[in-house]
Design the sequence.
């Protein structure tokens, strides 16, 4: 009787199996299971997955959410009960979470699955240079060889490639050797037999996806890194010297270390620009320092640090500004820098960047720095095309590039390096879409910007890719977005992702300011786990206490500050009034509730950019951004939980920073200290004696300085010593001193650590009288 019932139910399953096809006619087959098409009005959200008897050559997935094409056989409940009783280890009832997730039992095995597939089944507009990625339980590396085949669904051509097991032991990657044809439908088949580390044999999987028809050029097939550690590792941060006529005397010889000084100019043409309002008088430089470039911006400390209330650390920022004047002479006055400052506004580290004089109407910001959990300092430069990380010696550790997309699509908004060496990259791509009926100026062949997040492990294997186009339809985004703000250089930029990070529980948090919202993405499945904020009510999944007023609008820097709190900088564009705020929420992801626990605003408005960071002592570090579009703003404000400003800084040239953070940092450069002699152009006097000036750009561990001098550069003696109190120090060389530069004297300086251990010495500097002799 049971056998008859089973056979009856199986015959019924065969009748409805024809439903299990995708729009292209191919079976919707995941992990060897036929998944019926889902229909509306379904009564249940449970999917029952079970193995069939041995006389059936494939396993089927029956989904109660789908109305059958044939009547349910009366014996099917009996069949399910018998199978569940006899094969309880092989029957799993799971809550449906996504169309990617599926579990399948094998006789004698526990249920197993691939929880993540890339590209997603039925994905479209996939890069011609995509990898194929699947993730499940840990598997043996020697069991994956030959288990993945990739072919053209129309021609049947097979594509060769290599199969790699990522560092996590779970992620299997197929990297095609060549490009996939534009517009092709590609079928992927994973053969049975990949074995887990506990000896189970995994089922197979089949799915298909569509390749973009756009011919993309200048594609990067591999990240720019050095697998063997020799190509890039150990390369020093470039610090070229350019001589200029400012009356200061520098070492022009001195061996191999002369070229390794801290930077004076990054661009050899910079000297030609100094006629445009930049003074070469050393006394007019920031804090009167002689060892820095004349273009280094001046910092005004609006609110000095309040003792006992300011958090420890260094302030990291990159100067930028938005030009609205097409006059290149005016724009040439601006020189972008990366700066690391202490809480007094003094320099710790500086790097000058190339001036983007060819972009007079746009943001002049050539780099965005970060200090990551990995302990590395990173820079994004040239609009995100160059991403680099450096160690505490400012040595280049690695360069990072996306996989399979045009170089010009790299994005400079954000970039993360994890403590394990893995990293997250973000790109923007373009595809043609039909926007007629969605916007008053929609077109049949409009261009839409969509976003791609890629995660790589420390061995540079791409282990995850998330594409916004897979999860949000164009009409949804049009509904959620302020369409009059969503055109970007002629393209629809409906999300404009501007921040990404790992969440404390190992997933991803993405900020989407065009919809004024944020999303959490599962790194296990790629699915959107929840949506938060948003100007349109059907975007948001959370209830807010108190209710949000004004709403979040065009925010930046959305991040978790710990497991249950989230910070952001709410710019406030299109609110009434337009006021920017630094906010922190305590969130409960289970109940989808958010409580506002910190709110700071003093009426300032920043149209774009900005950051909010919770510091170790509970203070909030606020970077105001703004690009001077709404007037000058501080680049850094530190406030207590009660809203008291305990430190604030501003650039005197009205520039700002994309974001500003405070970090712990230890720097010990490989380049030597910089030493210069200011002779007042030979016009010294009793009240204006010659001075030696010296600094060590980027060094944080200097406790003391030691000064050497003598008539023979091989036998210099210590002539002075003192504690380090600022970035640059100087000593006067009085006329009666035997080391006055009127004679031939050689000078050198040495920084010392807290225990008196010497670091690298400067080059030896000769007074002008030595060369005259």
Sequence:
């Amino acid at each position: 009787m049971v056998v008859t019932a089973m056979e009856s139910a199986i015959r019924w399953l065969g009748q409805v199996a024809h439903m299990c096809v995708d729009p292209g006619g191919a079976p919707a087959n995941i992990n060897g299971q036929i998944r019926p098409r889902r229909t509306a009005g379904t009564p249940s959200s449970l999917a029952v997955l079970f193995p069939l008897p041995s006389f059936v050559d494939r396993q089927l997935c029956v989904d109660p959410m789908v109305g059958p094409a044939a009547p349910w056989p009366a014996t099917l409940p009996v069949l399910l009960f018998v199978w569940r009783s006899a094969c309880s280890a092989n029957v799993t009832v799971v809550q449906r979470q996504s169309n990617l997730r599926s579990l399948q039992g094998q006789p004698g095995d526990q249920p197993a699955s691939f929880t993540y597939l890339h590209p997603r089944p039925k994905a479209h507009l996939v890069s011609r240079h995509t990898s194929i990625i699947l993730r499940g339980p840990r598997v043996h590396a020697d069991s994956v060889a030959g288990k993945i085949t990739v072919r053209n669904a129309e021609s049947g051509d097979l594509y060769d490639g290599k199969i790699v097991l990522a560092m996590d032991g779970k992620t299997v990657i197929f990297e095609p050797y060549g490009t996939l044809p534009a517009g092709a439908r590609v079928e992927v088949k994973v053969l049975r037999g990949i074995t887990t580390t506990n000896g189970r044999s995994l089922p197979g999987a089949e799915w298909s996806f569509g390749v973009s028809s756009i011919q993309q050029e200048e594609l990067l097939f591999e990240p720019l890194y050095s697998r063997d550690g020799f190509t890039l590792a150990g390369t020093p941060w470039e610090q070229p010297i350019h001589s200029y006529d400012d009356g200061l005397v520098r070492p022009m010889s001195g061996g191999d270390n002369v070229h390794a000084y801290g930077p004076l100019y990054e661009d050899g043409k910079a000297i030609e620009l100094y006629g445009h309002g930049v003074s070469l008088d050393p006394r007019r430089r920031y804090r009167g320092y002689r060892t820095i470039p004349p273009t280094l911006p001046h910092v005004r400390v609006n609110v000095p640090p309040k003792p006992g209330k300011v958090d420890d650390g260094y302030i990291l920022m990159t100067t930028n500004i938005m030009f609205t004047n097409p006059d290149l002479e005016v724009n040439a006055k601006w020189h972008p820098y990366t700066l690391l400052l202490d809480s007094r506004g003094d320099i710790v580290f500086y790097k000058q960047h190339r001036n983007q004089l060819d972009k007079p109407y746009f943001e002049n910001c050539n780099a965005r720095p970060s200090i990551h959990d990995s302990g590395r300092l990173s820079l994004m430069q040239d609009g995100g095309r160059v991403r680099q990380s450096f160690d505490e010696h400012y040595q280049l550790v690695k360069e990072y590039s996306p996989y399979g997309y045009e170089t010009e699509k790299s994005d400079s908004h954000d970039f993360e390096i994890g403590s394990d060496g893995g990293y997250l990259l973000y790109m923007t791509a373009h595809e043609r879409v039909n926007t007629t009926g969605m916007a008053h100026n929609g077109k049949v062949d409009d261009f839409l910007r969509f976003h791609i997040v890629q995660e790589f492990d420390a061995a540079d294997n791409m282990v995850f890719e998330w594409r916004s186009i897979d999860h949000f339809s164009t009409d949804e985004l049009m509904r959620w977005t302020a369409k009059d703000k969503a055109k970007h250089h002629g393209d629809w930029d409906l999300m404009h992702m501007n921040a990404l990070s790992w969440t404390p529980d190992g997933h991803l948090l993405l900020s989407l300011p065009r919809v004024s919202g944020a999303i959490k993405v599962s790194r296990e499945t790629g699915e959107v786990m929840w949506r938060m904020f948003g100007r349109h009510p059907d975007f948001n999944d959370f209830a807010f206490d108190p209710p949000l007023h004004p709403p979040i609008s065009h925010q930046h820097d959305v991040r978790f500050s710990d497991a249950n709190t989230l910070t952001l900088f709410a710019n406030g564009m299109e609110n009434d009034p337009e006021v920017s705020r630094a906010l922190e929420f305590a969130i409960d992801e289970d109940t989808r509730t958010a409580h506002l626990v910190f709110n700071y605003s003093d009426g300032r408005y920043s149209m774009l950019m900005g950051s909010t960071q919770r510091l170790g002592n509970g203070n909030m570090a606020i970077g105001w951004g703004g690009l001077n579009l709404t007037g000058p703003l501080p680049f850094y404000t530190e406030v207590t939980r009660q809203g008291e400003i305990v430190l604030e800084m501003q650039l005197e040239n009205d520039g700002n920073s994309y974001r500003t953070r405070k970090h712990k940092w230890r720097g010990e450069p490989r380049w030597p200290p910089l030493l210069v002699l200011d002779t007042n152009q030979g016009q010294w006097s009793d009240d204006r004696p010659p001075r030696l000036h010296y600094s060590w750009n980027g060094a944080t561990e200097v406790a003391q300085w030691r000064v050497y001098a003598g008539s023979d550069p091989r036998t210099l003696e210590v002539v002075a010593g003192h504690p380090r109190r600022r970035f640059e120090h100087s000593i006067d060389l009085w006329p009666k001193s035997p080391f006055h530069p009127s004679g031939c004297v050689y000078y050198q300086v040495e920084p010392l650590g807290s225990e008196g251990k010497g670091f690298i010495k400067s080059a030896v500097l000769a007074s002008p009288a030595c060369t005259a002799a």
